[in-house]
Protein 1
Amino acid sequence: MTRIWLCGWLLAGLLVLGVAQSETQPFDEWFVDRMHGFKVRLPEGWSVKVSNGLPIFTKDHCFVVVGATTYQQDLKEVARHVVRGLRTLQMEQPKLAFRAIPQGVQIVGEGLGYPYALNPMIVLTPTPFPTRFSLVGLILKGQKVALIVLFLFPEDTPASVRKEMIELVRTLEFLPASQRVEWKTTVLEDPLLGIPYGTINVPKGYTVVGTPMQQGTKHLYRYEVKHGNFLCRTDFVDLNTYAVMAGAMANATTTIIYNGNSSALSAPYTINAPEDAEKLLLAMWQLETNKEWKVVSRQVKEKPPLPAPIPMPMLSEQRHWVVTLTAQSGDLERVAMVSLMLTNFSDPHYIASTSSQYASLFIGVAQYPKQQRNFHQSVVRGIAASVNPSVEWSLAAFQAFTQTNKDINRTVLEYLEQRREDNSKMARTWTNALSDQTYIRDPDTGEVFKVYKRVWDTDNFWREPVFGRIIGTIGKETKLGELLKESGWKVMDESLAGFPE
């Protein structure tokens, strides 16, 4: 049960990590993306991703989409094209209209469904989400290019959040070509599941490696982008600790799984607060780089625990933090954005009590020289915002995870059933031994008889071939046994535990 529940966090945990990368704002108050050519001041709680080259800003199912298109006719034709596209994306027909305004064209809509095209992974989340949306759009005229801004939000969105959407767009600036970084789209392949994980945009000249892996029963995918001392990657850590306490005696073990590789720690290690996860992360970095890393800043936000897909035991505790660390080593700087999910279980008993802890860390890591901090930060943001996992891969990973757990559960049930059968057989054996009785079976007919026999008697029971008379006990190697065998008598099978029907 524990394994199923913990792995059930997987999809939701990956989504949390993606949001945390932009929501925590570890660099500065401006979100600068040199790859996709914009900068913006993000209000608290807002995140950004780039899909098909378009920046999409989101918070609490509210979306701001910014795009541009060339046009030769009037803007109303552009508006008609946008409205047709919106109707195509909707499962039900919303009410949409547009009108000319001094700055261009305004589009309004009501009765829209969830904009799945902007957030397709929402179908995998366990929590309910709004289904009725409103739309306000602007098409602003330029000399040859029209700027399209779409605001999509649930009908009950507070006025304060709608105001944030407007303020966000007011701060949006597009970077000149001289400040942009050329990039290319890379498909992240997964030969294990046979479905591409998704796509990522990386600067030209940078190397990118995508690695599918199985961590426990979970199917995960990590990527790493490198160029000299620059890197941007994802890491996955599972820490499992199990302890048994009996009186003054205690024994505990910890297993760590890091990017699919499992090993036992020399001493048990538990995480009781984000500071413990920070120590673990710094120790892992030191082993990786042979350098000592010192934390210079941190942000910690505790969030509500993610919902469990199955009922949890009463004696359990769940906690969830989003942690942002900035550490330095020489002229290098690392920023880690960590989604830490922690579960503690306890099972008290008057003879021996047990406890276990399961900690999952979803980590986004960026490294760069401190001297070029601003430039590399803007590249990291562009890479992280462009990662677009596919729903097909996520569904396939969840299906594989479910099948693996079914196989494990079946194996465990078979083991428990065998244990029960073995215990029952052992109980019958001891009962028969103590009561001086045993079971014998005719090897030809399969007939089973309960007979009297002392447990230390090692001789055999025999059956007469014509009338089926049974006698015993007589040894096979004795003179009488040889005569019985010559006369056609047969030795009976024997078992203290009985014979299965």
Protein 2
Amino acid sequence: MTRGSIYPMKTLAAILAFFVLLPHAFAQTKKSHPASAASDPDLLGLTCAQILEKTSTDWVSYFAEKSAPAEPNSPAAVTTRAIAAYGKCYDARTARLAGMLGKTGKGPLMGANGNFRDFQSAVDAFTSKSLAATKTAEDSPRAAYAHLYEKQFRYQFYQSYAHKDLKGRPLTPEESDEFAKAKNRFGEVLGLLPDADLHAVHSAFRQIFGSGSVPDVTKLELYRYAIFLLAPAKDKPFSPPPF
């Protein structure tokens, strides 16, 4: 073999080695920068799946017990942090479901997505007006719970596509009875507001239903949510937390 033929062979071998080792190099880079929810200290070393196995109430109690030594004089701050951590996990689960539906082509089309955005905007507006009308501070545990419970509607939206239940099931007889009671209770707690706030909040609530067709099950959840927002904190809860 001549001297002139050796260098091309060495060059070819180097190029091949580069492409063989390139995926490994990328893998090593990814390993050195993990993007895991477990890196969040407020998850207390648990995965989101483990956290969502608990109810939000149980999680807050668990978080308070484990975090108490760090903030013994700030139970409200501990509760708010716990709710925020639970909310992150809930949002992550919703995002995974939406992503899965998108990949399989079973998710909502553009029109349905647009209708839901209008619905969500109306719920956001109602939430903001309700918190303002009840003089609820945005950094309070009550406001944190409100924003957490509001997340149920987005998850249910994608669930309806996952379960191919786009129109929603009818209410059970027990739910129908509760729905009637919820309407009455909503009227009662709404009537506790000053007139100026009452009309603004009621108008915002009606706008939710004007954003498109709302399944009966979701209507019941909306009334439960509205009652939670407006009822005095001293009152017995109308219904248990949604999760």
